[in-house]
Design a protein that fits this description.
The protein is an alpha+beta fold. The chain is built from 7 helices and 3 strands. α1 crosses α2, α3 packs across α4 and α6 packs across α7.
Length: 170
Amino acid sequence: MAYVISDELFHAFPQEKEHGLTRKRSVLTDRTYLMEVAKELHLETYLEVGMSVTKVTDGMMADAVEALIGAIYLDGGMGAVRGFVYGRLAPPTAMEQAFQRIDHISKVKEWCDQRHLPSPNYTTLEMKVGNEQYFQAWLRLPERSTSGQGRTKREAKAQAAERMLEHLKD
């Protein structure tokens, strides 16, 4: 999948530098975007889970998109994968919407890199309340720290990073 998306981006944005193409590819292959695609395709109705699993999670939905792409490849080859990716995953309108989404985690990393500071340090903790699971994340930079919560580690880290960016503006 990443290969096909990389190829499409390379041709769609010929003037873009490597860093920009890498960022665009990461947006189109990250779990958040794949979960959105899975929901648009209503993949949850086709997933069967074991008895110990109480519900289909967003992570499972993202994994299902990747599995679907694998099945398309096995059934129809690379041409079929390209058709699916260009038609469903990376049509121009979806690419534009995805690129407008802000990746707070990357922005904090870029802020540190620009100032020659160590990479951001995230610590996460899994919490359970009844049947609900969520994560708490702490983000530490030199002389600064924030925290965030989310249903996944990534969501919790993203919220902590977003809060950090608000502090860094001050």
